[in-house]
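Bug #77: duplicate submission created two jobs. Keeping one. Sequence:
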Amino acid sequence: MKEELLVDSYYMYNFKGDPSRTPPTGRVYDTQSNSFTMNYAKVALEIDSDPVTVRTDIGYGALAGYLNGSTLAPLSVAIQQAYASLKIPGTQLTADFGRFNTTAGAEVIEANRNWLYSRSMLFFIIPVHHTGLRLNLKINDMVSIQGTVANGIFADMPDNNKYKTGGFSITVVPLPTTTIIATTYFGKEGVADGVSDPVHFVGDLVISHNVTDAFGLNLNIDYVKGLPAAMVGMMMVPGNSSLYAFGVALMAHYVVNEHLNVSARGEFLRDKALELDTADTNGQEYEGTIGVAAPFAGHYEVRAELRGDFAKNSIYVKGPLATDTAKNQFTGTVAFLGYIQ
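Kept job's structure:
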């Protein structure tokens, strides 16, 4: 039996906010400015009774509202994952059935598993989790593949049409220091632009490389077409099957010693999906973040982070009126993470 516990809380200040509690634009995992925030408290339980493993992850907090598909609920309870896994006897094949985290992305929901506290813009445009069937096959020590049939890419449950989404992922480890993961999801979802059941697509590539035992690099490339909905401020608006987003993020992580590490991220997003830039359907956004983490006692971290977001147009809200916008925003965050796993 395995147990995981996580308590994730933070204090963020939006330096461009007027008043100071104006939340930063384009963020869904850290949205409360000038406020101590209980972001996510997660309890996970995994019981292995060979050949069956059952896992459930339940969370509560501000982040859980987004996992439930709503950014309007300040505090919510969310079933992050709940699935049963069956090992097929005599093979390297396992079958998962239920709700499980997406395979796409260089970052995950749990902040303590990421190098930086805030998530990239790319993590905002990919799915969070899927409900359906997932098959995992380890071919050898270098190659593993995964196939998924789910309700949808973004529409999780219930399904919003008669079709299902397909997914495929391949993990290649060409060197002990390098891992390459390519993931795609594709399928018809919902209705957009008066066209019934438009095709949506997610293509995600993650390359991780350990330069040394202390220094690591991550490269993440995403292409997403036909987002079913867009985020404008804190409201979801209908999507457009012809829109797309393309982005690249580079992340670096350096372990100074057992009680200090430093991380940085730079990324570019061409945002024709109206996810952030409502002023220009071919908008461009950039982001740079630097953070330090001080882990101690094996189960606790204090993280400090400075982040700047920049755009070609004035898309970042800085005041109570929709016209109070700027071409950049700057935030500072101190996060407190306690975890047992």
